[in-house]
Design brief:
It contains eleven helices and no strands.
Amino acid sequence: MRIRARKLFDERDVALVHANGVGVYIALYQVLHDTLSIAQLAGVAVLLAALHAAIWFACRRLSPNRALHWLGVAFTLVAAAVWLQFGGPWAVAIWATEGAVVFWTALNVERPWLRAGAWALFGMAAFRWAQSDIQQTTTAFQLLLNARAITGVYLTGLLYLAAWMATRREGLRRNADARERAALMVGASILTVIVMSTEIVSFWTLRTTSDDAYVAREMMLSASWVAYAAVVVVLGMRRKYAPIRYFAIALFGVALLKVFVVDLETLGGVYRIAGFLIVGLILLVVSFLYQRNAAAARVERQDQVTQ
């Protein structure tokens, strides 16, 4: 294979690289799925991934940006092998991995249409993760050690990774789209809250025989939302990044609304007092930290003006 150093890939070249890599495996799967076992079919995907990784390694110096496309195909084939080996919910890993790789490639080759494709892949991964066959709670449920939680955490991690990649690129290019980074950060934060909430709900769903199961579930949901919002607002202040601070404030509002509208109707006695104390203490700490950081920011701005 020969790659010309000066010839740029256009949209057709990029589509052919990805379509050929994935298409070859699809064709092999159709021919061999009645002959080979699932583990062997997954092994075929890994072998093809190794081949594409070798192509990337051979071409990385001659044409670093274009070689990334073969590495992207390799990551996608590895994700396909994981899906085949471990089952349907792992399709989320395929779409999310391909989305992250396409996003990374788009940042390096500066192709806006590839970014749109990455967003579409992330959206497909989120949509697949939200399907009922993944979200259902079974009697074999284990907290965090289940396909829903693992794939949800994986998708969330890739969204954070994409935001980090955009941050690094933004440092190199002043005209980078900051709104895209903000959307990735907020989207990952929302998904984090959803993953936490579904795990809490599933945990208590299997304990409905307990008289306090509903009360404990609602208290744990409210406390986890407030605690996560507190962590996010502190990180937002330290990093001086407004979008996640605004998300944290909105989450605080939702949690407080839930406390007053839902929790107060179900909690009584000691539970009600404990709930108010926990939420109030967290809000007090966050308020103190917010005011302290705001004061420090004002002093810093004044120092810059006087210099």
